[in-house]
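Minutes, project check-in
Item: structure for the 140-residue chain
Input as provided by the requester:
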Amino acid sequence: MKLEEGSISDLGAERWPGDPVRMLVMRRYPRGLASAKIDLWIPDAGPSAALLERYRQKEIDWETFSAAYQDEQQAATGGRVRFYNEDLRQAAHDLHITVAPVAWIRNYAKVSTRSVLLLCWERDGHCHRKVLKDLIEEKG
């Protein structure tokens, strides 16, 4: 299982070797991002809007945000995966999953012949995708 993480602003650069599966892991789809730039989107892998807002408003620090995000992900029992890449699509454009997004991504990465690239808009500094990557690798 090979996991990487990065910013959607780096998608045009040849930063990642090979052809990783590009997974967008944000609650809201970013304005201006062409769907051709990603392979699939897992909205429920992102932090809740309320948690993200508390962090952005500096009501909580990074450690509190990170712990709360981990709790959200560990409590998750399902979600949705939207496929944009025809080659990866299973039966439908949207797949409703009955396991936590962390478990779904972990299982996907284990069976994929390609590396998995976790993406969001944040460029530098603290980002939930780094926490997500650690959660996925924790039981990998």
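Outcome recorded: Strands lie at 3-7, 21-24, 40-41, 79-83, 94-97, 116-120.
No further action items on this chain.
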